[in-house]
Amino acid sequence: xxxQTFKQKIILVTGGAGFIGSHLCDHLVKENKxxxxxxxxxGKEKNIDFLLRHPNFEFIKHDxxxxxxxxxxxxxxxxxxRWQGLQEIYxxxxxxxxxxxxxxxxxVLLTSSIGTKAMLDLALKYKxxxxxxxxxxxxxxxxxxxxLKESYVGQSDPLGYHNCYLEGKRFGESLVYxxxxxxxxxxxxxxxxxxxxPRMKLTDGRTxxxxxxxxxxxxxxxxxGDQNVRNSYCYIDDLVNGIIKMMKxxxxxxxxxxxxxxxxxxxxxxxxxxxxxxxxxxxxxQREKGAHVSHIPxxxxxxxxxxxxxxxxxxxxxxxxxxxLKASKSLLEFNHNRQKAD
Length: 342
Fold this sequence. Notes:
It is a single chain. By secondary structure, the protein is of the alpha/beta class. It has a domain at 10-198 and 233-260 and 290-311: Rossmann fold, CATH 3.40.50.720. The protein is built from 9 helices and 15 strands. The strands form 5 sheets. A 7-stranded parallel beta sheet has the order 3-2-1-4-5-7-12, sandwiched between helices. Strands 6-15 form a two-stranded parallel sheet. β1 (10-14), α1 (19-28) and β2 form a beta-alpha-beta unit. The longest helix has 28 residues, at 314-341. The N and C termini lie far apart (63 Å).
């Protein structure tokens, strides 16, 4: 039986108020009806404020680990949801800020297991296409600077608060893989490598946002390792384009999405210092035992099968990201001062 086609698809994005999710919603809502679900554990209403008045956008504050019946939500009547159902699900929900892993470790694991199962069951119910956004962390330990193909299998330790994200993503991938095989579900897996851009949080513990936060306070910029430490950085627009290409494709994955150009982290730190007129100094410290190792993607499969590769240069992407983070800090300080005055 052929699937019914609609003028506009109804698309569900979990974690839609997060850094990556909000950019994805922004793109999808131009041609589709978008339901954004987020519980604001790490996402922010500010990220989707500009979308709330869009007729093709609806936000639902909800924890996906708790059962939800979309057909009973009055907010979705305008989409004629009970008649049309869902056509696509982008499952991005999962706290991804390293600075929050100690606090939200259980939530990370439950969202990657219970939450992922709930979304897969929705996909089965509505015969919707499903995309799981995994992460390069699943590769575990690798040699620094080693370019990783999708077939790489690294070592990992399930213990330690940082590894909740790694183990959650590994379980999520296995669950998606088995749903696809057992139920013939059109379910896909993407592995995102280090991504940056506007709407990152200053306090999320990621390299670039941490550098900017330290630079704006004229604090030392800390690099774990020495001046030879390298990483790759993919701009958010490039990642979102890859995610959408994957959903439109006949590929199941897993497929790497990231920037294969590995750069000295010290170069990024110097760019941040100059762009913020900071007096910060760059300080190197010994890498902690068991600390996360940066991963460099091999993206040949994405090039050949999705026609995708990153196009935004680091200089241009950093300029936009730093401008956003500087404005974000100014707004936080303004609100703080106003609250003190009140």
